[in-house]
Amino acid sequence: MEKQEILVTAKSPSNIAIVKYWGKHGCQLPNNPSVSFTLSNCYTETSVTYIPDLKNGMQFLFEGKESPKFKEKIEKYMEKHGGLYRFDTDIFSHLKVESRNSFPHSSGIASSASSMSALVLCLLKLEKALENDETPLDLRRASMLARLASGSASRSVYPVMALWGETSCVSDSSDEYAVPLGDMTAPVFKTYHDTILIVSNKEKSVSSRVGHALMEGHPLAEKRYLTARHNTQRLLEALRTGDLTAFIDIAESEAVQLHELMATSNPPYKLVEPNTLKIIDEIHRFREKTHIPVCFTLDAGPNVHLLFPDEFNEKVSAFVETKLKYYCVDNQYISDIVKGF
Question: How many angstroms separate the CA atoms of 292 and 187, rounded?
Fold first, then answer.
């Protein structure tokens, strides 16, 4: 019987960590737990086509064009971890992978979480198609396999919020995979917006991979990991009870500490820019004046994530339009929301 082509597709969102993952050991294992919002509008859509007679090995296209850098990343992942899938690894050389982001590639938003989780979901769908298995995907297994590709990708397979890393607060938590927090999260957090203020659209001068490596031997490493574990416990309680004041304190202190760790690495480096700090000042003034529970977080870059509940959307959106966007490159920002069930 002649083998048929098989096409599978998957869409996976990016996520923004509130308690940060910074520092790892072993095979993509975190040195502390992390907790993140799963986004809706910033996502990667990927298709994988199994072509039995494909020549010259795997093909990869990003938004219709060849991307040797990302193709190499996929090939390394498949070479190292392909044996964890329930099909012959020879299949990898017969795949055509096509991927696109919903957000501009030049927006400065890290796409490894969304892109690698989307790829893993496709490979698991292909696995099921080859086995004629119509049962639902095992998201815990998907999270584990995504973690091996990109640590933060482990959290992107779940809606609302996710926890990655073992903690006594959640019985089934693990360093091997993320777990969903939707059932443990108060309704207000399921309405959250994330307006991403694009301070810079340039590629980061230091990659996250290098940043994680610089945590080895960092003078503040152990203190950082203790703080992150404590903040994880505090955040889980705040999420359960709907405590917005505690949420704001944790989110902003975690963001600042992440960049303090970069500044005190050896060698030190700085990813925030003057307009990052100006936006943060504006947010603090706005919150003090209006008493609206808006706050910020940062990823490993200069862009600011503005977080707030939906009930304040009209007033905060006006604040962004009249004040904050002028600190952004080309007045650019992305309006996103938490991904629901």
Answer: 17
